[in-house]
Input
Amino acid sequence: MSCHDPYFAAAAGMICAPKHPVLRRPSALIRAAKAGQGGWMRGRALRRLLGVETLPGHEAVLARLYEIEARLNAERLAGAASYQPARHVLVMIALLAEMRAAAKARAESRAALRLVTVPGKARPERRAG
Output
């Protein structure tokens, strides 16, 4: 399985993001996280999940969410009494939303940095000075 085919990855219960590990989770968990995307309120939910007043950038939030999710998944796999399925779903909702927001921010950043070339000119003109 790979993340090259997003439909296949989603159907297989995988979450893929650049620079982050591939998560293989139960399909019910992924479906619940996708269903929760509509009601996602970034500021309020992330402040509560991360325990911070001021939110860092998307990449820092993603790194922190991956840490929290890894701990929750370890609890799930161990059958720990402390495991909270509702919290795990909330963290997965946050991961999906932040991955989407980070991808959008990267795309906007790349678009802003694109160089506009003038047809017929290989280099900008130098000013006589």
About this structure: The beta strands are 14-15, 23-24.
